[in-house]
Amino acid sequence: MKKLAYIILLPTVAFAFMTWIDSTSQRNDGSKLFDIWYSLDGIEDSMDISVKAIAESGEELNCETFIAPSDIGIVYGNGNYHIIWDIGADVPDREFYENEIKFRLLALVPGTQLGECPDRIYIVDYFNHRVVRMDDMDGTNWVSFGSSGSDIGNFQYPSDIKIGPDRKIYIADYFNNRIVRMNDMFGAGWVSYGSRGSGTGEFYLPFGVAVDCGGKICISDLGNNRIVGINNMTGTGWVTYGVSGSGTGEFNDPRQLGLDKLGRIYIPDCANHRVVRIDDITGAGWVSYGNSGSGVGEFNQPTAIAIGPDSAIYITDSWNHRIVRIDDMTGSGWTSFGTYGSGFGRFESPYDIAVASDGRIYIADYSNNRIVRIDDMTGAGWITFGSLGAGVGKFHFPIGITIGQ
Hints:
By secondary structure, the chain is an all-beta fold. The two termini are 28 Å apart. The model is unreliable at 1-117 (pLDDT under 50).
């Protein structure tokens, strides 16, 4: 029997989650316990799961369909507590829990390695009016999509990119005043939403986009100095929060958004030189951190926020030409890395940041026209990819980056 390197689960019915499972439903001393967070929506007592196995050699084995066996435990929690049911227990009544609560499935999988699918790097190439995907920092399997314009397949200075829980690609099409979603890097399933303005269904320079685990979409409407929430790409559930200013509930150039596992929204309030967190689109739980400057606790035009697998907050402090990591919104554990330039450990207006599941940090080094990856905030493992241009392996102001599958 071939040793499996990965087992990738693809629901064969419309459930909005994936998990891990042993294709033989057996346990042994080599079993590993994996936990992955998902939305509460869609859980059932049992589900059909398509198991895609990839051998260590890279050979893709045949797919088969299994019914989820009883060796799956369910853990409900909201980040502050967990309630663990015994392995094999029935799924509890989910209506007892609020939709915002997340759950994770625990699967015992002998002889496998953690990872749903290899992470890939998605980049917004701002001045080339396109989005790019590559498998690694060598540029393997480079593919790009888009050109200048306002029709299907066109972007006009796109500014942000995220991968939703549905694995679809969401893009802030900045100068076209719209949000775009497509199924893949060939533009299949293209749908856009928005037009220029300040009313319902309208944006004025939407700069950032984020998608929560339930598929709801959050947009930083930069020109209107507000955050917009919609349920889906039809715009249902439209709600806005924020006005122009520097106080509570006010923004001045909100940029690329971050979300944590609890669905809290992190906003780089760029021209106010601070970062903001709110619990939801109503603005509940408002807290801000930072002032103008270049020291500890200070920012000069922060442009993006990412939440790491350690729940730490990572920020691009763009005009200080550095990235910052803090443990929480009090600023504890402040660490910064970078200075102005183009050599090792140097950035020129780093614009966006993403943190992979393995903790490695990816930076869109805007004015250096490259992507940077480091292992941690010491700069260990520094590697770069890209140079100025419009061809393969070239960027003209990479402004957005995310890690997805």
